[in-house]
Amino acid sequence: MDEFQYDNRIVRDFAIATILFGLIGMLVGLLAALQLVFPNLNFDLPFLTFSRIRPLHTNAVIFAFVGNGFFTGLYYSVPRVLRTPIWSPALSRFHFWAWQAIILGAAISLPMGFTTSKEYAELEWPFDIAIAVVWVSALVNIIMTTINRRVEHIYAAVWFYIASFVTVAMLHVVNSVELPISFMKSYSVYAGVQDALVQWWYGHNAVAFFLTTPYLGLMYYFLPKAANRPIYSYRLSIVHFWALIFLYIWAGPHHLLYTSLPEWAQTLGTVFSVMLIAPSWGGMMNGLMTLRGAWDKVREDVVLKFMVVAITAYGMATFEGPMLSLKNVNAIAHYTDWIVAHVHVGALGWNGFLTFGILYWLFPRLYNRPLYSTKAANFHFWIGTLGIIFYTIPMYWAGWVQSSMWKEFTQEGLLKYPNFLETVTALKPLYFLRSVGGTLYLVGFVVMIYNLWMTALKGKLVPTETAKAMPLNAIWHAEKSEYWHRRLLERKPLALTIFSLVAVAIGGMIEMIPTFLVESNVPTIASVKPYTPLELQGRDIYVREGCYVCHTQMIRPFRSEIERFGEYSKSGEFVYDHPHQWGSKRTGPDLQRLGGKYPDSWHYNHMEDPTSMSPGSIMPRYGWLLENDLDTTTTKAKIKAMQTLGVPYEKGYEHQANADLVKQEKEIQERLKQSGIKTAANKEIIALIAYMQRLGTDIKK
């Protein structure tokens, strides 16, 4: 028998990071929610404005809270399942400190406006490189640990861990191919339709392989442990795993239904999304059926309460997702708060509650004493559940209200609510209720922090645990009747890794290669020209300020949208957009046909004080744009980058670009002067106006 030790210190460290960054992420989320009711809560500070802190909230919750939660469970369960210590403690420490450094970098850079504008992948190129390095180092550590195991077969939890690492690495690298122009600024190498497809191939599967499959691995380990029951069905776990990772990767295009994405790609996304119900619910049933004969424990054990609600929320979210991918349902829900509710059923219920259950189970074992207060844990469970209800129901309601008001016509055939602001002001009470739900959930989280703190304080960390097991070569044997999956894959971690990569790569390749190579997928439009240097600078300000968070630039071919916003969007309009700005949520109106709709003075006044142009608006003031000087030292590098990416500026134009920029600045300055507005020509607001006045003007209705 070999004697070895499990390291609990790395588990403890990731658990503390989970709690700390979870608190920060949820506080930022609550602030963002309140700003939709009280926009002045940004205190006129750019780095506290909704459009900048919303990406901070999503990144903090996904990669800091859920990510650290996954690593907490990973470093506890993998050695015990494989009966061997983690292969490299040094890589484990590197993983921990480097991941926290990336999170801190995100917390600083995103509010400062350094963003790629790609949802869930907003971090700029230096962070992208760091993420890839850290992620691959952790993958190597897990695979080597698996190779050095002291058990014959690799348990289901480890399958999900390995597939998660492999797929996220692939997604991250492909989506983050960008051309740097400075230390914290880059342009996506993809444009328009292709960029949108790659982004939502990544975005949907970031949900799949960062928020779902890793936590399914945690479920397969911690639920049987907490219930003291074996997993319900080994064969169901096999079907669940392979069907899930193969089907999930195809589903990204369902985020782009009715957009300019080719119809065949939209249809593929819908078909595979609907098929996802089967493996998703197979996994849910495998979890819930594990508790057969143990439901009496659920009544008494707070850990199992959290886990049961988490698995139920997973089932709800994975039923709703395929339903939302049906075109008739998507036409109602997309761009509305319904999607916000759907996402938070998964985030608060599935990820949040499973994390809480794992932490409540782990801390007494890490600190060798019972949980400080079971009553406090039960209070956390009930107030957290109430928080989820108060959050999601108002958002579902808001989604229905939005869609109904957007689409309603009078008997005369006119839009009943032609002013988009009418739909916004109608939602304020529901936004307030959402913030109440978030507050309740946060209160429960704070109670958990106190409970776990007191548990640790009254106990003492068990830094290592000694275990014994026979070496693999002493126990290896094969039986003729052995199930094929065990014989071919569960004994061979490298084969399992390669097959997982192949399973997840197929769908992405079939969707992306034709979209990139077959020209008919993105027909060009002769009248669509590259942005002028000033418009390009203005577009970068639009990206920096996070305008895509609240505004779309994609008019779907619906009568209601064409009547409200103008001619529906064509794929050829976006061929020079690096990256695309289609957006995914309409808190404000679509801007695709904004150019020429209002005079320059309207935009100037609107950014200075939105309520002066739109009484009742919940948009914050962007007064700093009127004061900041435009940095034209970057113009040359930006034009050269665009030329590298295939945008047809004339050769050598980068040397003329700033002269043209100044000329256009003075034209806008003069128009503002005629409207009674005096401002310097070199202000950021001038560039932003230039960009907004260009939007949608390249094609005729």
UniProtKB/TrEMBL annotation:
Binding site for Cu cation: 204, 254-255
InterPro entries referenced in this protein's UniProt entry, alphabetically: Cyt_c-like_dom, Cyt_c-like_dom_sf, Cyt_c_oxase-like_su1_dom, Cyt_c_oxase-like_su1_sf, Cyt_C_Oxase_1, Cyt_c_Oxase_su1_BS, Cyt_c_oxidase_cbb3_su1, Cyt_c_oxidase_monohaem-su/FixO
Residues in Cytochrome c domain copies: 533-696
Cofactor: heme; Cu(2+); heme b
Binding site for heme b 1; low-spin: 57, 344
One GO MF term attached to the UniProt entry: metal ion binding
Coiled-coil residues: none
SUPFAM superfamilies: Cytochrome c, Cytochrome c oxidase subunit I-like
Pathway(s) served: Energy metabolism; oxidative phosphorylation
Domain Cytochrome oxidase subunit I profile: from-to ranges: 14-517
Superkingdom as given in the UniProt entry: Bacteria
Subcellular location as annotated: Cell membrane
Listed EC numbers: 7.1.1.9
Cofactor remark: Binds 2 heme groups per subunit, denoted as high- and low-spin.
Main subcellular localisation: membrane
Entry keyword annotation includes Membrane: yes
Recorded topology in the membrane: Multi-pass membrane protein
Similarity remark: Belongs to the heme-copper respiratory oxidase family.
NCBIfam families: ccoN, ccoO, PRK14485.1, PRK14487.1
Stated name of the protein: cytochrome-c oxidase
Organism: Dyadobacter fermentans (strain ATCC 700827 / DSM 18053 / CIP 107007 / KCTC 52180 / NS114)
